[in-house]
Design goal:
By secondary structure, the chain is an all-alpha fold. It is built from five helices and no strands. Helix 1 runs antiparallel to helix 2 and helix 4 packs antiparallel against helix 5.
């Protein structure tokens, strides 16, 4: 999904970086994955400097954080901004990410 208010060329960089992270994960190369993940967070930080607190950027940052509580906090922040802006598609996408995070956390709790 192309977020409202972000230049296509900027979001294309995010998409390409997401592919790089996914490819590193498929190769099961932890060092490369950590490097790509860090590069993604750096890119998103630059975009946040450029566009401000945009819900797509904040939610995507959350996607690449390791700590479940920090991820949840970022998703909730992004959700609040999306609600303020009345962006229904963004709201639905962030709510889906929150549900997935809750599902992941409950599965880890059962496994532990």
């Amino acid at each position: 999904m192309m977020p409202k208010g972000i230049d296509k060329s900027d979001w294309d960089q995010v998409h390409q970086m997401a592919c790089d992270v996914a490819n590193a994960a498929v190769m099961e190369d932890d060092v490369l994955m950590e490097s790509r993940n860090s590069a993604m967070l750096d890119l998103l930080s630059c975009l946040r400097d450029k566009y401000g607190d945009h819900p797509s950027i904040i939610a995507t940052i959350a996607d690449y954080l390791d700590d479940p509580e920090e991820r949840k906090a970022q998703y909730l922040k992004a959700l609040a901004i999306a609600k303020e802006q009345g962006d229904q598609s963004e709201i639905a996408e962030i709510q889906d990410s929150l549900r997935q995070l809750e599902d992941d956390n409950s599965q880890q709790g059962q496994a532990g």
